[in-house]
Design goal:
N-terminal domain of MutM-like DNA repair proteins, Helicase, Ruva Protein, domain 3, 2 domains, two-stranded parallel sheet, 12 strands
């Protein structure tokens, strides 16, 4: 599933073409992805100009001159690509946005989603934080405001385990299963440790490694496990740099212990038993 680094990589690539471009039209070839697609999307953005392209968590936000924002979520298997205008549609191309770039060149942004768990919607830009997909999101995983006082206040009275806390989009948005395992390994924290038992040094180390892991993954174009592609067609190369995720029964790079897999809330979690010993049993 595309997580923050994959979405950030996609945002950066499409921004080269979309910023200040004119939307000629948006074509939808399905009526529903994860949710029903508002049919007005086909006409409300015609001849509008793209003013800003942003991201929060796993959502790409495209602000336009008609004071509306397009909201894109890639779901489980979705990816974006930029093509020449009138390119032949391939299987699972569900949304095509035709644009005229600031250079006058005509291109199209294509949203391909095999499993159809993604979504496209829009909302008034000024009221974006009230949209049902956005309103409950926590702080972005790469936000400079993600600091000790913020996280300590949230963790202080919670008894959930740290792996689940990292996946809770209402606390920190953008981190998914792959990067949660990696962040915890880098931080030498056991995934079943309860957040109210984390000491100050552990929280600070966690914050440091959230930034390190996510930033490194962005620089590598994200992680391709199965479906994800960058908008330029390349895979994400961070898979080659994963320390624990997907490495069950292989040796830890740091200590040569054998990586094993835990299932936490039906999600695979990879751990080094020696590097991540600090579980506190209540």
């Amino acid at each position: 599933m595309p997580e923050l680094p994959e979405v950030e990589t996609s945002k950066r690539h499409i921004k080269q073409y979309l910023l200040n471009a004119k939307i000629l039209n948006i074509k939808s070839f399905v009526s529903k992805l994860r949710w029903e697609i508002n049919p007005d999307i086909k006409k409300i953005f015609n001849n509008t100009v793209i003013l800003k392209i942003d991201r929060i968590g796993k959502y790409i936000l495209i602000n336009t001159s008609n004071k509306n924002t397009l909201i894109l979520h890639l779901g489980m298997s979705g990816y974006l690509r930029i093509n020449e205008a009138n390119v032949k549609k391939i299987k699972h191309d569900h949304i095509i946005m035709n644009i005229e770039c600031i250079t006058g060149e005509k291109k199209c942004l294509i949203f391909n989603d095999q499993r159809r768990f993604g979504h496209i919607d829009f909302h008034y830009t000024s009221l974006l934080k009230k949209h049902f997909l956005i309103k409950n999101l926590g702080i972005d995983g790469l936000s400079k405001s993600l600091k000790y006082d913020f996280l300590n206040k949230i963790f202080l009275n919670k008894t959930i385990v740290i792996k689940n806390a990292l996946l809770d989009q209402k606390i920190i948005c953008g981190i998914g299963n792959i990067y949660a395992s990696e962040i915890l390994f880098y931080s030498k924290i056991h995934p079943l440790k309860r957040v109210n038992n984390l000491c100050k040094n552990e929280i600070n180390f966690l914050l440091f490694n959230i930034n390190v892991v996510l930033s490194k993954a962005v620089l590598s174009g994200g992680t391709t496990i199965k479906d994800y592609k960058q908008p330029n067609g390349k895979i994400g190369y961070f898979k080659q740099k994963l320390k624990v995720y997907g490495r069950e029964k292989l040796k830890c790079y740091d200590c040569s212990s054998i990586i094993f897999k835990l299932n936490i809330n039906k999600r695979a979690t990879y751990i080094c038993p020696d590097c991540q010993k600090n579980k506190l049993v209540n």
